[in-house]
Amino acid sequence: NAGVTQTPKFQVLKTGQSMTLQCAQDMNHEYMSWYRQDPGMGLRLIHYSVGAGITDQGEVPNGYNVSRSTTEDFPLRLLSAAPSQTSVYFCATLGGNGYTFGSGTRLTVV
Amino acid sequence: GQQLNQSPQSMFIQEGEDVSMNCTSSSIFNTWLWYKQDPGEGPVLLIALYKAGELTSNGRLTAQFGITRKDSFLNISASIPSDVGIYFCAGPPNTNAGKSTFGDGTTLTVKP
User: Fold this and answer.
1) From the candidates B32, B72, B102, B104, which should be mutated to test the interface with A, based on the most A CB atoms within 10 A?
2) How far out from the chain centre does Cα A13 lie?
3) Which of B11, B8, B10, B13 is nearest to B110 (CA)?
4) Using CB atoms and an 8 Å cut-off, which of residues 43-82 of chain A contact chain B?
5) Which residue in A42, A43, A82 sits closest to A62, CA to CA?
6) What is the pLDDT of residues B8-51, one digit of tens each?
7) Which residues on chain B are in Cβ contact (under 8 Å) with A97?
8) pLDDT surpassing 50 at residue A29
9) Closest alpha carbon to B26 in B87, B91, B105
10) CA separation for the pair B45, A9 (Å, rounded)
């Protein structure tokens, strides 16, 4: 039982490049979400999904797209990376015992 | 939406000392959650509180649900080096809201 799996763990991008951060869960949780963590700013919600086919914006959605074609997967796409998107990204699901987080993706945009 | 204020922002303590941190909300809560994030990992649930006045322990950690239902406290007794990390409080998950339900975190450093 892996829980929430995020890939890659580390990534360096050049400004303007695109990439997809992967998130997969095996807990059959309907709710999934993406956060970014920056020093002193806690966990800020980027996008979330309450089930397959449904997504919505969080607090800081600009520059990011998401889709939810299956219950298991919730990828986060950066279409044109900017240095301001340098951060640590966490995917999380929500079940009866609260949130379960992945181990994060550390992204650097140069 | 709910707004959480977590303090202190950071703490530097000596091994063996006790630690206290707290979280306050602008709204009344029916749930308080406390998470710990180890360096390089995602946050993990430590303690969940569901009732005003509730006091719950998990080893050396003790958390309390304030009687006003607008605050919660986390205490760590006899700290050890592996207590290092970021501690987050969180309110009740709101799956229809577009805002994070987490406080900004308390970063704990323990000196051996």
Assistant:
1) B102
2) 16
3) B13
4) 43-45, 48, 50, 56-59
5) A82
6) 999 999 999 999 999 999 989 999 999 999 999 999 999 999 99
7) 45, 48
8) yes
9) B91
10) 21
